[in-house]
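REQUEST ID: PR-0412
SUBMITTED BY: lab tech R.K.
PRIORITY: routine
TASK: structure prediction, single protein chain
INPUT:
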Amino acid sequence: MRSVASWDDRVLLDVGCGTGFHLPRWAEHARTVIGVEPHASLVALARRRTRRLDHVEVRQGTAQHLPLPDASVDVVQARWAYFFGPGCEPGLAELDRVVRRGGTAFVIDNDASRSTFGAWFRLGYPMVDPDEVERFWSGRGWTRVPVDMGWSFARREDLEAVVRIEFSPEVAERVLASHEGTEVDYAVNLWWREY
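STATUS: complete
OUTPUT:
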């Protein structure tokens, strides 16, 4: 992300900030960090995590209704908040509204076209067409950066627990039966756009 746009001394918005895990990291360089999260319990955890950081605030809201004024942020980061392109139009319209001219938005999402996890994802979510996702984002002026990462667990039980969170019981059992060990290669897409 930093190779595309810096958030140093700028206003950064983290859409779908969850428990606020990344907010302190953004705060190391950003002038102001705003986390937006729809779930009240996660908002409370994020506020607790950042209570000593005076330039970080957490607001309850959704990607489709960001609780921010027009043209108020410079950099937006959203991990798994805009799933798979089609259907995200209301949230992307909100980005159009809140990002200042010269700002940059980043969206991180699963890449179902490659990796072991990508194959699992296609099995669990056959309705998500990777080619359609690509057309959706690129047709709206977003640039794709493929990122290779992975899962690594100390115990097989931990891997199994996460797989069971991600997939239906039937798909999780098929996936686990076909995979040995505690590591999984995982591909994501980093989509970005300048405003």
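NOTES: DSSP finds seven helices and seven strands in the chain.
REVIEWED BY: pending
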